[in-house]
C-alpha cells in the first residue's frame, strides 16, 4: 500500500501563488521593515509571561483610578436590576418595559455645531450611543469620541455639588448671591462683568446672551476655544468680506487638494464629509476621486490620500501659492491673470506643483481646494479664490452664515482677560469654556489673574487647573443630563433632551447664564421650550404635540437653510499674497496638533479614549514627539529616546516616535496631554507631555526655531503597532485603479474560491448564514468601530502597563500597515475581528468544547466551559482572541454599574473571549421576528461596528439573501479572504483597497 501522504496529500502552508512580487511588501513598523531580531522573538512568544494580580507596580486601588469608569463598566455582572433612584415611578410608564431598551434622539456639539445622536436606554440608564440617521451631520454614524461619552457620564470623579472656595454650598444660595450681584452690576451698565463661553450654535443660548448684552451694555462677552476656528472665519472674511462656513460635496468631487486639512475626522461636518468622500472612492461606480493631502504629520485624511505630499507646516502656504502661479501661467484660468508673474523658486517641489495644478485644471468645477483650521487666513482665502476660478464654488460648495458667534475665540482673548483681571477691572467672571488656565498660551498667567477676581464662577465637569483658582465651582451636567438646543452647519435645529436625571446635581450653561439674563426662575427646559414656542407662534396642546414630534425625530423640520451667495474679492486676496514671505523657514519647526483622542484635553480622563490606539502611531495612554525617519537619523535619535524640546526659552521632555511619512525637519506634538489626574488619586500620574507649555499666542500651531536635545534616559510609551503580528503575510491588500481594471474579473483569484479539504465540508444550505464584509477602499481607519465594540460588549480597559505587555482586550482592532519606503509610505488601515471561520482552527484544539460552531455559521464561545488553556488563541492565525489575565470585575459603586449592556455577559479572569458578531443583537432581532411572525429583517440588523462606521465600510448580514449588501460584497471582484491559503473559510470578506494615483506622480 502506498504511503499515507501519497494516498491523502495534505495542503502545504506556503505563500499563496501570486503573493510575491506583484505588490510591495506591507509592514507595520520600522523595526519590522528592518527585520528586528527582538521583534521576531516577541512574535514567537504568543503570550507574555505572568498573569499575576495586581499588575506590577500598580495596586488595585490605583488601577481602578487609572482605568476610571471603564473598569467599572466591565465589573459585576449586570443581571440584577439596579435600584430605581434616578427615575422612580409607582405606575409603570407606557414606554418603559423591563428588559426592553428604548432609544431616544438627542444631539451634542463636538465642534460648536450639532451632531445628532440616538441613545439606547435601559429603564432610564443610557448604555449605548449611536448616530441619528435623520440628522444631516451624523447620517446615523458617530465618531470615537461620541461613543465614549458614556464613560464621562458615569465618571465618579466628576464635580459634585456647588462649591465656594472648596466649601460645599447650596445652589439656592449661589443663585441668590449671583442675582444680587447682577443687580449691582446693572447700575453701571455691567462694567467689570466678563463672560467666557465656548462657541455654540444654540439658539436659546444666543437669546440669553443677547439679553445679557442689553442688560449690561458695558459687559464683555467673549468666546474661547483652545482649538479655535479663527483662521477659517478670518480667511472667509478676507475672501468674501464676512465670515462664512463652507460645506463641500465630496461625493461629487473628482480632484481634492487638502491643505493641512484632516477633514475626514475633524471639523463640525466631518461625519458627513467622510461618508460622502467614501462614496467617491468605489471603482465599481465609475470614475474615482483623487485626493492630494499636503501636511507635515501623517493624519487620518493623509492616510487615505492618493498622494501624501509631506512638507513643513509653514511650507503649505508656499505650495498652494505655487499651484496658484502654475494655474495662472500654464493653464490660463480666467481670473488668475494677475498671478502669472508669481514665481516661487522651489525646484524640489516643481513636479508635484505641476501635477496638482494640471489635475485641478482638468477637473474644473469638480475640483475643490480645502484648507485646514491650523493654516493662516491667507491660505483659506487663496483656497476660496481657486474654488471660485475652477467653478466648484457653485457646483460643489455651499456657503452658510455661521451658526456660532463668528468672532475671535483664540488665545488672544485669554491675554486680554488676564490683563484686565490683574489690573482689577474684572468684578465678576463667568467661565463655561473648558479649562482656560490649562490651555492658556505661554505668557498668559491666567491662574494668578483669577485670584484677583472677587467673583470667578466656573462651570466644571471635573476639578482641574482652572477650578483651583475660581471662587465658585459649579458641577457641569453631561449632555445626556441636559436640556438644550443646537444647530448643524446647514441650520438644521435639534433639541437636546436628557436621558437621565443629573447624577451629581449637574447644571447646564443655561442655568449659569440665566441669573445674568434676568430669567433665573426658569429652568433650561422652560427656556428652550419657550424659545421655540415663540419661533412657531403656536401654543397649548398644538405646540405640545409638535414639541413631542421634534423630540422623537431629533430634528426640527423646516429649519435647514439654503445657503448664501458670496463673491471672492480678488483684490483683497491679491494684496495678502503680495505680503507673502518668499524665503522658506530654516531649521526645525515645531508642529502642534489637536489631540485626536483628547482634543484640547477635555477627554483626558476618559479611559476608553486613553486606551484606544491612535490611528497612525498606535499609541495608547500618551503622546510622543513625532519625527520623520530621516530627521531622526540626522539627529541620532531612535524610538523611545527621550529628548528635550526647547522653543522660545520654554521646554518639555518627550519620548521620540519615528513616524513613516512625517515631514523632515519638523517635530509634531499633540495637545491635550500632560494633565494630572483629578479626584482622590493617591499618587497622581502625568500621562504624556503638556504641549501647551510650548504654545504661544502668535504661534498657536507651528513656527520655526525649535531646538532638540537628546537626553541620556529612555522615554516610555505604550503602542500596539507590533502586537498580533501577521508575519509579513498578504493580509492588507492595496492596489491602483489601473491595476485593478486590468486584472478584473480575475483579480485576487488566488485569495478566493475553494480550497483543498480532507473531509466533506458542512453545507450551510438552510436558515441564516451570518457574514460580514469590510471594504478597505471605504475604511478610513478612524477607530470609531473599536470604541463602539467596547461600549456594546462591556470590554474592559486594561491600563497602560498591560498594553505594554500586549494584553489589550479589544475584540476588534484596526491594524495599520505601510507599503513602500519609510519616507514615502502608503498606509493601509484594516479592521480585524474574529473571522467566524467555517473551519475554525480554534475549535479543533479546545479540550473542553468551549468554542463551537452554530448551524448559522457563528463561531461561539461558551464562557462557563472555558478553563483558560489559551490553545484556541495559539491556533488562531488572525490573532483575534483575548484572554482575561486579570480580574476586571472589582466591586464598584451603584452609579458605575449603570453603564453596563445587560445583554452581554461580563467575563471573568481566566476566560477567553472574542468578537461574537454581536450575537446579542441577532437574538434580540430573532425574538422580535418570532413575536411578529416574520423573518428577521437582516438589512435592519446591524452589528455595533457596522452601525457606527461613518463610511459604511463594514456591512453585516446573511449570505442566504443573495440580494443583500453583504452578499453583493462577497461577490465583488475585489473581495478576498485573509489567509485564504490556510483553508479556514472565514465568513468575513475583505474588499481590496484601491487607490487612484496621478500617473505623473506614480513612483515606487
From TrEMBL:
Spans annotated as Disordered: 1-25
Pfam family, one: Fer4_7
4Fe-4S ferredoxin-type domain: residues covered: 770-800, 825-856, 857-886
InterPro entries recorded: 4Fe4S_Fe-S-bd (IPR017896), Asp_de-COase-like_dom_sf (IPR009010), TAT_signal (IPR006311), TAT_signal_bac_arc (IPR019546), TAT_var_transloc_signal_dom (IPR030948)
Cross-referenced PANTHER family: GLUTAMATE SYNTHASE [NADPH] SMALL CHAIN (PTHR42783), GLUTAMATE SYNTHASE [NADPH] SMALL CHAIN-RELATED (PTHR42783:SF3)
Protein name stated in the entry: 4Fe-4S ferredoxin-type domain-containing protein
